[in-house]
Write a structure and sequence with these properties.
The complex is a heterotrimer. Chain B is mostly helical. Chain B has seven helices and two strands. Chain B has helices spanning about 1-20, 20-25, 45-65, 85-95, 95-105, 115, 140-160, and strands spanning about 70-75, 80. In chain B, a hairpin with a 5-residue loop joins strand 1 and strand 2 (about 80). Chain B is elongated, with a radius of gyration of 24 Å. Chain C is mainly alpha-helical. Chain C has a single domain (about 1-380), classed as Formate dehydrogenase/DMSO reductase fold (Up-down Bundle). Helix content of chain C is about 75%, strand content about 0%. The longest helix of chain C has about 30 residues, at about 230-260. The chains are: A alpha+beta, B mainly alpha, C mainly alpha. Chains in contact: A-B, A-C.
């Protein structure tokens, strides 16, 4: 057995060396992944879609953006809160920005319902953990869902630090009041979330929520183009982001 | 001796069960003739190709639309159509029952497209036909959505703002 | 050799009948889940993983624990483990099998399970988990069965089986490390985002596995007239004791880091688990029960090392298994989802369907284990 132990130690050294080579490949994967999502645009990437939410203009009690989004995309409405699916919704400042100081926050900020949706992060943890690539990052920065490929493992839901994702725990169609035929519904067993209205962007339209807001709370545009309205707003106004310390690099900014 | 009886009995049961599809069905019906009622003049690909390969085409379209954001198919005459089952395919072929189902029920094929993709109302033409895209229908879309928005805002009021915190 | 599992006494067949009944009940419930969707479980938008993934996490540890008998026997010639190694390997096989079944049970689209292989994404830990778990299953069934068959024939096992066994030693550590990385790599959940998760998983695995092996040994003594030997049992107890001590040390370290640093994100999940949060305290009795039973069991195990007592050993093994089942499964998995990323406390309770599917899958594992052990014991007794 002493001979075998020596052989085993030699073999493990080989395995570790081999693992080193393999991990080199894996880090190549992750390097590719990382460089694809750094701030500096690569030559072929000229678009990074982003959004600024100006909460100063957002009206308490108004849910037009939420309604338009959910109607456009056939988001079901269930009675049971645990089955809930939401792509965009309102929540308290303390819940949307828990990493911000909660001490002596002005009453206005504390009580205002803040709009929240998928951040379409530049370094999305959900994309990192998806085993099949059902959620993936497009070249224009949108974190997209491929419902045909999702296996419903819900790892992305565990990984998302923002709670942006919902799962179809049951058949959605019975819970959709008016089906919009231009957009598919989903079936039970897949995860879904805001898609920055990629189907509307393809037709040259603004996202539904942006268009529907009567107060122009939402500004959408290409973050890589310095001449866009959104870049101007970001230049002129102090903005905050959700949980920036996690390194996800969200594409959604807030003016409080 | 007992074992032999059991073995042969089991074998007989198995053979009966395994061959069931062959001896239980009635004589095969004739291949269905599809009434080609279409709106458009030309399909996105030749009929022969489509008969054999429409599944592959749909899969390719699905991946290119969802994963590559390539949403338009170039027709032979250079015009663009949207890669869409609901809007383009059924925009011309009009009826899921009379077109898709005819062959699928004969061949006992059950694709689950329509679990998610919406079956257009008979007549096939939805308010937003995908054949033309862009500016022309934008106003339609807005009107349509705002009208629906009105409906759900009313029902939302009844639910007392379930969506806000 | 499998024919040895098809003969047995009344006790054996009654046990098999009970397991089959549980399996049928589980199948019936699972068909409900397939029809209506995962809404029939207690999971929801905020607690999106529940009992199924909790069982998976616990069982990966049980599967990995086979290394605790394989390593001493094959690498260090600890002959006293001669009769228990095959039991450890077969325990690993049944545990790994039902790990995979629990994952499938949890999936929203189980018909797409092969997409993990068709569309590989090595950046995902789930991808690696599927690979290593299947690999481990294969390694253990091949090596265990081959060595057993050689023993039945009265010859020494073929040479090619040795490197596979050595591979299983490293592989065992990898399966549980990958599972830990699944949790420890997610940036949004502070209960999981800790480097100590992988060591903690291994420590609890090496406490639970040997404890289960001890309990199985006593069951085999009573019902199969098969004795693995007192020395083997005592050594297993030693391993389990120190592994459990390591586990509770890690738990203590976690509690210290969270509460001494006072960082809210680190504290909140542990506060929910041990003291309740926002008026919700459903899991508090479970966690304290787990801690107290676990620590008492460790102390009892230490005590009976010096003053051997079969009754105390059995009790403390049960205690360790139950305590760590609660700690790993319920504490870690459910706790990771509370509070949610939106800082909300939503509680989770498994439904009847969830519980029956879980019991059914456990029964499948126990049936596989029973059959395999029946074969192993028959071969070893004849040898």
């Amino acid at each position: 057995m002493i001979e075998n132990r020596r052989k085993f130690l030699k073999k493990s050294a080989g395995v570790i060396a081999g693992a080193g080579v393999v991990s080199g490949f894996i880090s190549k994967y992750s390097t590719v992944f990382a460089t694809a999502s750094t701030e500096k645009p690569a030559v072929e990437k000229s678009i990074r879609w982003g959004m600024v939410i100006d909460m100063r203009k957002c009206v308490d009690g108004c849910v037009k953006c939420i309604d338009v989004c959910h109607v456009t995309h056939n988001v079901p409405e269930f009675d049971n809160p645990k089955d809930e699916i939401k792509w965009i919704w309102k929540s308290d400042y303390a819940k949307v920005f828990p990493s911000k100081s909660q001490q002596f926050v002005s009453a206005e900020t504390r009580e205002k319902p803040f709009l929240t949706l998928c951040n379409h992060c530049a370094d999305p943890p959900c994309v990192m953990v998806c085993p099949t690539g059902a959620t993936f990052k497009r070249k224009d920065g949108i974190v997209e869902m491929d419902f045909h490929r999702c296996i419903g493992c819900r790892f992305c839901m565990a990984a998302c630090p923002y709670g942006s994702r919902s799962f179809n725990w049951r058949e959605p169609r019975p819970a959709i009041e008016n089906i919009t035929p231009e957009y598919p519904t989903r079936e039970k067993g897949v995860v879904e979330k805001c898609n920055f209205c990629s189907e509307r962007l393809a037709r040259g339209q603004q996202p539904a929520c942006v268009e529907a807001c009567p107060e122009k709370v939402l500004t959408f545009g290409n973050l890589y183009d310095k001449k866009t309205e959104i870049r101007q707003i970001l230049k002129d106004n102090p903005t905050i982001q959700r949980k920036p310390e996690l390194g996800t690099n969200p594409s959604v900014f807030y003016i409080t | 001796m007992n074992e032999k009886v059991l073995i042969f009995a089991g074998l007989a049961v198995f053979l009966l069960a395994a061959s069931y599809p062959f001896w239980q069905s009635t004589e095969a019906e004739d291949f269905p003739q599809i009434a080609m009622q279409t709106k458009g003049k030309q399909c996105v690909a030749p009929v022969d190709y489509m008969r054999k390969n429409h599944m592959k085409l749909l899969n390719t379209w699905r991946d290119s639309v969802v994963r590559d954001d390539e949403r338009f198919h170039i027709m032979p005459d250079g015009s663009k159509v949207e890669k869409s089952l609901t809007k383009t395919c059924l925009g011309c072929h009009l009826s899921k029952e009379k077109f898709c189902e005819e062959c699928h029920s004969y061949a006992s094929v059950k694709p689950y497209c329509w679990e998610c993709h919406v079956i257009p109302k008979s007549g096939g033409h939805t308010e937003l036909s995908g054949i033309e895209s862009g500016e022309i229908n934008k106003q339609n879309l807005l009107n349509n959505l705002l009208a629906r928005n009105q409906q759900s805002a009313e029902s939302n009021q009844q639910l007392q703002g379930v969506n806000s915190d | 050799m499998i024919e040895k599992a098809l003969t047995g006494n009344k006790v054996y067949w009654s046990w098999v009948a009970i397991l089959l009944a549980l399996i049928l009940l589980g199948i019936n419930s699972y068909s409900q889940q397939l029809t209506y969707g995962l809404t029939v479980t207690g999971m929801g938008r905020d607690v999106s993983w529940g009992v199924y993934i909790a069982q998976f996490t616990f069982l990966v540890g049980v599967a990995a624990s086979a290394v605790m008998v394989v390593l001493p026997y094959y690498l260090h010639d600890y002959k006293e483990f001669g009769k228990i190694v095959i039991i450890g390997e077969f325990l690993a096989v049944s545990a790994a099998t039902i790990c995979l079944l629990f994952i499938i049970a949890d999936m929203g689209h189980p018909d797409r399970v092969f997409y993990v292989l068709l569309y590989p994404h090595p950046n995902s830990m789930v991808f690696w988990d599927v690979q290593v778990l299947n690999g481990y299953l294969l390694i253990n069934i091949v090596s265990g069965w081959t060595v057993l068959e050689a023993e039945r024939k009265g010859i020494s096992p073929p040479n090619w089986v040795k490197p596979i066994i050595y591979l299983s030693i490293v592989w065992a550590v990898s399966i549980h490390t990958v599972t830990a990385f699944l949790y420890a790599g997610t940036p949004g959940r502070h209960l999981w985002l800790t480097a100590v998760l992988a060591p903690r998983f291994l420590a609890s695995a090496f406490a639970v596995g040997p404890s289960l092996l001890i309990l199985i040994s006593f069951i085999l003594r009573k019902f199969a007239d098969f004795d693995v030997g007192d020395k083997a049992i005592r050594k297993l107890a030693t391993i389990a004791t120190y592994a459990a001590i390591a586990n509770f040390f890690f738990v203590g370290a976690e509690l210290f880091t969270a509460f001494y640093s006072n960082i809210p994100g680190h504290k909140h999940s542990l506060q929910y688990l041990f003291f309740g949060l926002d008026g919700k305290y459903q899991l508090v009795p479970w966690m304290w029960f787990s801690m107290i039973v676990g620590i008492v069991s460790v102390l009892v195990m230490l005590y009976q090392q010096r003053r051997p007592s079969q009754k105390l050993l059995i009790a403390s093994c049960c205690g360790i298994v139950v305590s760590l089942w609660i700690d790993k499964g319920i504490g870690l998995i459910i706790g990771g989802f509370v509070p949610s990323p939106m800082e909300e406390v939503v509680e989770y309770f498994p439904t009847f369907i969830e519980i029956t599917v879980t019991l059914g899958i456990w029964a499948i594992g126990l049936l596989i284990l029973t059959a395999l052990l029946k074969v192993a014991v028959a071969v070893k007794k004849a040898a």
